[in-house]
């Protein structure tokens, strides 16, 4: 299947209309999970949990084989679809950005640590014990979600979602690094840096901007980034810009000079030079190469 920009479906209206359901919605498919081979993106976040799964799941330009106990964290705007699917059962939980706006800062940090592909993979393979825990929790959420509406239900549903995010974060941290590392002030600064980067990468490409925003030196920021990601701040900044550029080249028909301007490059030449240095090919070559991929 060849992907063309006009084939990308934007789904902006799939959330239910009840007040608390404007923030999130959960569906359990115990028999057959509905999937599509049409590349599409959403204006909400998704947590997908597949205890049983066969096939391929494509997210942006990444591909993931599904074999069961697969957890996916899909950010708003990410393009995904499925191919060669066999048996799939599981859960789909969707929630909108308004959740982060209403949440405490401690909970908003999970947006940085979980829904940011600079830090972790969008795919987590859980062990049997973790899989059992996450399934039990999702079953509890589904059961409560299906009850008739009552006063305080919105708060309870939001609390369940917070618990789910905390549990997933714990699973991720168990694999990524010791808890002693993630409890430090430096880790908080690292999370803040990534959050700032997500907000400002298109307009600010300099390490000094982020260091100043965090009220630390550029050297201190470099030390923190190497500790938690093994990359320099500049490498993380450049990689985030590259991700945004690739997404537009893959799935939009935007002119390259317009992509260049949207990412605050002085001209198309500077953008092309930057892209080729990191990707190994020019933006034009990348767009043509991606269009020829037979998925």
From TrEMBL:
Keyword entries, A-Z: DNA-binding, Transcription, Transcription regulation
Residue ranges occupied by any HTH araC/xylS-type domain in the UniProt entry: 191-289
UniProt-listed PROSITE patterns: HTH_ARAC_FAMILY_2
GO molecular function: DNA-binding transcription factor activity; sequence-specific DNA binding
Coiled-coil stretches: none
PANTHER family, per database record: ARAC-FAMILY TRANSCRIPTIONAL REGULATOR, TRANSCRIPTIONAL REGULATORY PROTEIN
Protein name listed in UniProt: Helix-turn-helix domain-containing protein
